[in-house]
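Worked example 2:
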Amino acid sequence: MSRQLLVNRLTVNTCSLDSFEGLHQAIQGSHVEVMQLGRGKFRGSLSHVGIGDFSLSIGAFSVGVRTQRIASDEKLVIGMLLNAEDRVTHWSFDMRPADVLVMPPSTEHDGSFHGASSYAAVRLDLAEVSELFKGEPRLSDPATWIRKNHFRANPSISVAARRRLPLLVSRLARQQATLSGSAADFWKRSIVDALTATILHSLPPDTRGPLPSAMQLVRNVENYLDAAGLRPVHVSEICAHFSVSRRSLHRAFYDVLGLGPVTFLRHKRLCAVHSALRDSDPAATTVAEVAMQKGFLELGRFSHYYHSLFGEYPSETLGGRRLASRDRLIPRTVQNGLS
């Protein structure tokens, strides 16, 4: 079955916690033992995003706790510390906000949070990393993920990295729906990309040797996007398909077009939204539905991008179809009388 025909249910569940026992399922599907360390009444929250069998968890709590994962868990867990009021340690690693921790499959985990904290984590099959990180040779190798590891956040991206995942959860919660296979793939890649930005920024430059010419690479990417049609394409999908690193792709696009691949892809998605709105029935379609299927969640920012590119707002494009239909039905003499 093609990517476009597959459908995935998007679910976002958030609950309040009034005891440390609620963190027992802190990483959905994983068995985690929790005990309270800090004094005081426990208060917290737990959110789960599910896209098909993909899961993201975000948790927050008001007092110190200790967490232990049992070794029978066969999933790879990648976690990010979002905020912490006091010291946080995982194994022998001292964690700072936006740092990323890798918990390999079948490995025990021991973490201590000495004060109020929040975190995010995803669970993956080890076999998935080859496709998700195909453009990054070190990350696409499963051997990279079979040892415990800690990646220190770059100060230049730490604030943005910590904000992206809660923002994604907040936006997705407003748009719970059935996603096409292509939209589901896009949002899964967006979540993984936000979680692993710290890892990518900590890697040294790629020195695998010469790449295809910048012009040829950009042309190949454009052909790939044309073949993809109107579905949203994440930059990590392009890197995986062409086995090229994010840095190399960025350099090629700037050399040829004077803008980065993320901006180029956004313009492509905006054009796809524009075409979809022009062809949609305003009585049966909303701008928010079309925007999400094409990879946009934050409607205010999306509307700004859209207006900047097309000189009109998305509602005007969608409403223009109704006006065009009305004009075709009104005799020209009547139109002249109304003008």
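Residues 62 and 116 are 4 Å apart (CA to CA). The chain has twelve helices and 13 strands.
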